[in-house]
Structures are given as C-alpha cells and as structure tokens.
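Q: Protein A?
A:
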Amino acid sequence: MSAPGPVGYAQLSMVDPAAWRATGSAWASLAGVAERRAGELADGSTALRTGWSGSAAESAGARLTGLRDELVALVPAAIETDQVLAEFATRLVAARARLTAAVALAAATGVLIDRRGGVRADPARVPSDRTGATVAQVATALREALDLATTADVEATTRLARLTEAAGSGWTARPPSYRPPPNAEPGLVRRWWAGLTPAERRWLVVHEPELTGRLDGVPADTRDQANRLLLAARRAALVARWEQLLARVPRGPLEVVGLRSVEAALSGLDALVARLESAQQPRAYLLGLDVGGEGRAVVALGNPDRATDVLTYVPGMTAGLDDATGELGRAARVLARGAELAPGTQTSAVLWLDYDAPDFLHEAAWDGQARAAGEALHRFQEGLRATHDDPPARQTVLGHSYGSLVVGTAARDHGLAADALVFVGSPGVGVTQAADLGLPPGQVWASTAPDDVIRLTRPPDELARRAVLGASPVGTIAGWLAGPSDELWFGRDPAEPGFGGRTFPSGRYGHTGYWHPDNPALDGMARVMLGR
C-alpha cells in the first residue's frame, strides 16, 4: 500500500486485490496463534499456583497474567487488520471494474489512453466536432475509477496508522461505567458507542464480547471482532453437549435425535468457521452466533456499514446452524449477480438466521415463530441504518418461504428500516395488501415459480371446512395441495396482482431453485437490491 496520495492509471492497472486480501487473511491467522498462546499461559499460571507460593510466585503469576492479557488484546487488532485490508481489496476490485469499463468505453468511442492515463481522440475514428465530448466522457470515467482507488488507499493507510498508534500507547483502558440493556434501541446504542474512547471500545471487545457482539447499533467490524473471540467457546459448548448425550446409555429416541442434531450443528459450525477464516471475497463478518437449540447465525458478506446496497436474507423452514453456509451461499449468489449487472458497485448481503425456524410442517402451519422473530429483525434493520457510514445505503430485506412470513410480520407489527421488500416462494406474508407493510407498494416485490408447491397451499379456514365435511386427518393436511388460489396459508399470495405489489419472473426450478444461475428470479432479486 502506498503512502496517501493520488493513485495513478498504471498503479491501478497492475494492482492485485487478491494479494491484499491474502495479506489480511494472514494477519487474521495470527489471532488464532495469539489465542492459543494466551491459553497456554493461563494453563501455566494455574499449574504454577499449585506448586509454588510466596512473593516470587505472586510476581511470576502477575507477569504471566499480564502477558496473557497482552496476547488476548492482540486478537481483535489482528482481526481488525484483516478487516482493513479486506475492505481495501474490495474497493480496489470496484475501482478496477470501473477502470475496465472506462477502457472499454475508450475502445468503443475511439479514444486513446496512454500509460499515464492521459486521453486523446483517435483522429482516424473520432470526427473533429465530437472530439471534446467523447474525450471528456472517457476522462470522467477514468477519474472516477482513480478517485475511488485513491480514497480507498488513503482510508486504509489512516486506519492502519491508528492501529499502530494504539499499539504504542497500550490497548486497554478502564471499562466504561455504563452499558446499554441487551434490547436497547439501536440509535441509543450507536450514540453510546460513539461517545466511548477507542481504548474503551477495545476493552469491551476483549472483556465483554458477549455484550458487544450482539448489540444492534455497534458497528459491524466491531461485532465481528467480538463474535470471533467467542468462536472457540461456542464450539466447546457444542462439543460438551455432544459428549453429554453420547455418555447416556442406553439412549432413547429423543437422545438419539438430539445427538444427531448436535452433530449436525457442530459440522455446520465448523463449515462456517472455515468460511470465516478463508481469504475468499467478499470477506465474511460474524454479527451474531448462538449454538443453543438448532443454532442461529448472522453473517454478512462484505461490510454492510460501507456498502451502497445492503441485502438482508431471511431463510425459511428447517434453516439452522447445520446449513448456515448453504444459506449464506444463496446470499452470495445474489451479490455475484449484482456485480455482473453493476460492476464497481459496493454491495453487502447478510444472512439473518436469528430466529427459531420451523422444522416440521405442523410448526410451519402457524405464525407464532414468525411473530416471535419480528422485534429482533426490526432491531437488526434499525441497527444497520444507525451504523452505516454516510450516505445511507439502500436496504432490501428478502424472505424465502416461511422467512417471507417473518419479514412480512416484522414489517406489519414493528416496521422495517428497508427501502424494498422481496418475497420468494411465499406461503403468504401476514397481510392482504402490499400497502399494509409500511413501504410504498412499488417497493414490495414477489416471485413464485410456476412449479413451486407453495402455490397450492390453502388457508386454515378452508382446511377446517374440509374437515367438517368429513375429511380424514391425512386428508386435512393434504388439503394444502388442493389447487391454485390467490389466498395462501398466511394471506393473499404476494406474487398475485391483487396483492398490489410488483413481481419479477421465475423459471420452473421448484421451491428452492430461486438462486439457480439460469433462473431469471436471481436477476430479479439482484436488480431489486440495486434499485434497478
């Protein structure tokens, strides 16, 4: 990285964003080394106290404790270095995409670009009366690309300099005297966080990561640092639960089911950690993690506080920690398609799996779990608004299947800080009209595949009528599949004209195929995210 200053055409042409991303990932790997060494020091201190006493022992113990604290404080600094370099790499990718577009424009319009970025018209291709306008258009496109790279270079250099300064003056400080309650309004949290000193913020990350990592209104990069500090403890909790279930002999059916569930969650957590630790772009930010029950995770691809367009994806039935990376892959495909449609745009997509998704049809037949999730989704979206750098991002919330009911219920009951809502494969969203969701109907979108079985679900009152007419219990459940209707299980079909929203097409890819590369629905989701 150069010293702050204008980035030239040749520099941007030759820079390798992947190399900067790999450098950041190497710094992140130091966090794991520091954590292991801190653990070894803690173990050594414990062993020392059991066999040595007196003033010398106390002095040695204090020194070991101090060394351990320094190592623990180093962990978020290493993670932050990775964040800075990853974001720098992301913005270089965007700048290079704009540069490529400018070069293509020059080639198409007959403008020549020299090695220093100077532009002039090719007299053999550009008529003299169009020379000025054509050259100016290419020069503007080049300048925008170079300005983006320069801004990224200056910002990254400044952030790394601050880290260096903090290392020289000491990482820790006295803890702040006030903590907001767990469910505090995100705007209040943001103001509280802004009023802390950098050292106080770092103290909270190191010493109270459980609080810092879950507070909506704390910036995404800070939450990521805190939650990564908790990864080892979260995995240890899952392993302990697995060992406890494994030790039960004989095991009944419930213990067997529980054991398999924990094994699946453990496998899913390991896959998620592998994604978090990879050098893959965009960088993943861990905004929340809970290994209780089926497990919950909130993961952003790209920093949502710095993106111009932010998508929040809420998955549906059976979603849990066991397949968090699979659900994250769906969000990644929307981002990738967005990059194809609008090269150079900085986007972020968040997997919001912070609710207890139904596992079985009889659970998905009721809206209780969706209603229980509403306040948390509302608060999360408000937090994204509160922590975002100026200017505000375009925020889109996407719900699939039962997740669309979660989104609709949250919008209806609590309101959502969103510029657009998208429903795919929806069984209904809890309202009869798009206007009831608190957004302009023109910003409410939906799509349902022609072969999606969700089209055939029936509202409860119709099933009740069938039951009264003598249908068997099996027939009552099968009544979900009785034929097309504007009325679905949870209200009017949001993909039908009578709902009052807007639609985009989907191919015949079934209930889970909206993210298939050849499905036009993938384009639809990406275009809504981009506001196009």
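Q: Protein B?
A:
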Amino acid sequence: MKWFLVFLLSISSIAANAQSADWRVTKPTWTQQDEQSFGDFISRLGAAVERRECDMVDKCMRSGANPYYPTDPAGLRYFADCADLPYFLRSYFAWKNGLPMSVESSVSARPVPGNSGDVRYTPFGNYVTGRFDVLSRNSAGRTFDSWNDFWGSILRTKYPNAVSLLNGTLTDVTYSASYRMMGVEDGTLFTDYYPVKIDREGIRPGTVIYDPNGHVTIIYKVTDDGHVYYIDAHPDNTLTSGMYNQKFERSNPYQGAGFKNFRPLALVGAKVDSNGAYVGGKIVGAKNNQLASYSLEQFYGNSPDPAGDWLKGQFLYNGKPVPYYDYVRIKMASGTLRIDPLQDMRSNVNDICVSLKDRVVAVDTALKSGVQNKSHPDRLPLNIYGSDGEWENYATPSRDARLKVSFMELLSSSKDAIQRYKVGDPTIIYNGHNLPQDLLKTYQTESRACQITYTNTSGRPVTLDLEQIRQRLFDMSFDPYHCAELRWGATNSQELSSCRDDATKQAWWRQERWLRYQYERTYDSRMDYSLSELNGPKPGAGIANPPDVDIVKYLNNPKLIGTPASQE
C-alpha cells in the first residue's frame, strides 16, 4: 500500500508540474478587451526599459513589470531577438490568458520577376505558405500497444506545452521575413499582421513597427504631442527603447514596412472538456473587412496616386500635402498638434542618449566575450547588416546606422522648426527672441547631461558626452574585432594609447571608414571584401563622405537669426 501511495503522489507531482506549463485555451476569441490588456502588458514592460530598471529580455520578464512571472513554470527561457520579440510577447500573453495562438510557419518570395534571394530582404515581399496552430488534442478512444504506452498517456498532457513552444517552436519558425508582406491576405493562409490607419486607434501599445532593412520593434507608448516610443530586442538578448522617426524607412508596399497590428484570432469548431478548456477545432484570423483599423493609408497616402504609384501618393492634412513623418506626428497627437521646438530638441537628444547608453551595453557584451582579442578575419561578412555567428552577435553596423540617422534628423528637424517659425507657421509654439540660439543652448545643456562611460583596454573608465560622440560619430567602429577605444571612435594618441590592436586591425579600421560613412542599410549588396579590396566605396557598400550632422555649426550661423513673418 505504501508503495502505491508514493506512486500516486509521484504521479500527482508530475501532473502538477506538467499542468503549470499547459496551454489551455479557455477564451476562444481575442476580444477588444484582450487587445487592450495586451497593450497594457507591453506598456508595463516598455516603461521598465525606459526607466532603465531592466535592459535584457530575461531581466524584464523576471521583474515586477511582468505581472505573470510568479506563475511561470521552471525551464522557461526568456530570449528573443528583434523579430522574435513581438511573437514571444504575444504568445506569452496568449498562454497566460487562455487565448488561441497561431503563427506563420513558412513564407516564400512572391512569384514576380526580380523577387528572389534571401526572403528577409526580397524586393517585392513574401506570402504565407504555412501556418502553425497551438491546439489541444483529445486522446479519447486511443488504443495502447503496451503498459508503458498506457502509463505514458496518463503522465502526458493533452494540452500543448507552453514552455516548449515559447522556448523555441513558435520563434523558430518566425523571423523578419514573416513581417515582409502588406497584410492584405486574410484567407486560410492569412498574414499574422494587418496594416493600420495612422491614428491613435490604429497605432497603440502593442503595435509593431517593421523596418524593411530587417529590424522589428513593438510600441509601448504614444505621447500627447505625437511621439511614438518602442522597445526592441537584439541578438545578445538586450532590450532597448527608442522613438519613431526617419530611422524607420518607407519602401514599396509589398515589403510591408511600417505599422501593423496582430490579427485577432478565433478558435472555431472546438469542444469544451471537463476542465473548461477548448479542445480540437481550428484557428482562423479576422478578415480585413472586420477590422476597424485596417488601412493601406501608410503605403499609398490618404490621397493615393490614381495610377497606383506609392511614391506619388500624398498625405494631406487640412487639404495640404505634408511629408509622411510629419503626417504621422500630426495624426498621433492628442488634439491639434503644437510643436515646442525646444521640447522637441530635448526629446530628440534624449532619444539619442538612450541609444548611446544601449550601445554601451552592446559593446561591453562584445568585449566581455573576448572577440576583440581574436585576429581579424580575412574578409568581412557577405553583408555586414545581415550575418550570423560572432558578427551577428557582437557587431553594431545596423545599430550605428540608426544612430547616424538620428543625428541627421536632429539637424533636419531643427532646420524645419526654424523655417516654420520664420514663415509664421502656427504649429510652432515659441515665445523667445532667438530660436536658433535657444535651440543651441538647449542642445548644449542636454548633450552635457548625457554622458556615457566605456571601459578601455586597460580597464579604466572613459567618459564622453553626447556632443563628443557626435564629433566622432563616423569614427566609431562597428567591427567587433576592434579594441574598445576604436569601437568608441578614439583618434587622439592619449586615448588610443591603451589600445592593443595590431597594424592589420588598425588598417581595417581606416579602410572601413567608407562603410561607416554610410547611413542607409543595404542588405542586398556584396560586402565580403578583403582588406586590399576595401579601397573605397563599392556599389551599394560605402559612400565617399559622411553626411552633415553638425548641429552646432548650423545653429551658430548668424544668418539664421530672424523674426517670424507674422511679426514683421
């Protein structure tokens, strides 16, 4: 009898542990309230990242920002890169709330001329060729071949194992190619995402942003003045935050760039078991005509070109055409948009500062791996922006390109604000007497307040402020085989004195300047050059001179001083 009681207790213990990982669908349909709750979940995580309470996916998921963590079973692995993050968070939320989940399990390049190569970067996008549904199966009526098979059936749950699914199955089949489609397909092989209207109903916490250069983020906050903030993951499992701006490119609609929401799912044809869970059935996605926020506006404009040319589509506001990024800002503002140029300067500098601090984490991770102590490979990867292995894990070309675009936008937005002010644009709110100089003072104050510290090869801290970073922006190496000093753009002999890179590595740093000057990420260009071959810009790889990011020089120009036209 005693052995039998022990046996029963063992079965109960195993069953209890298994049950904690069960994915039981108890709510067969994603409702509007579920979407709101999912957005709230993302907002909590994003706020924790913004406050720098956590900077890794695993740390954030194990923190107080995740209300579900106390119920997580042992063995759950919290890991995601940029493309995995939205799927991981959506699947995790669905499991915790008893909701159905389905993902694209395979995609192929759309069969049109010239649309070939890596499906992550197809010129004319992809389409869904397979789906994976998270479903429970009932084993009633099953016959068993042996006693072992019988006892195994008792110990084995009929519900999907969430730990196994989240640890690999769901994210293994999805990658950035899964986002590279417009989202118009809503049949049996429906897309996971659908494109949304540019407004505060369509773009909200939980909305995904896809950059056609291969980066994916998820929105956690939209401010009253129209700024959109996101979190994103990286191959080293770091979790960062940022602000939407021109570092996210537009492209032809078939690449699916821009804002998109998860398509709500429903489990149909299932039966309820004794535990109140739905078993069997199939998962269907909501049709586009059922989605209030479904829209192709971001691709073709709210005044599309009659001939269908997406580049000629216009974004009209109050009957007047405005640039796309301005249109997004206007539509995302709560009420009528009013722009305070000085506050915008603070927001833009803060966004850059966050990116710089995140870069510290990324470079430190590379240095801790010791990759900088290895000999430099004879050739660069086939493409420095989309690679694998050590380069994928520790290089920063994509991160650095977005940083360069942010500095470029800092300059262009200042020019735009000054020009608008001078012509009396009522959108601009400024009550001072010299906008360029006030912008400069704001920039200098904020840039001095933004300081990062890296550890040099000798183990000593080196502190730089944002303006110092701007001055060495195009000297900062994205190459993980370089010393810390070169990774942070040191050029003076005193700061470089601790670097131990040999003559070959230093030559690589000099020759890679063409690639560092480039701010547009090109994933379809050959870049696997040897040191001797990397003797200047190549087709699609590198440019001859860096773009202008000298905000100080521009704002110090005495010709900028002026009075708005409305006050002359």
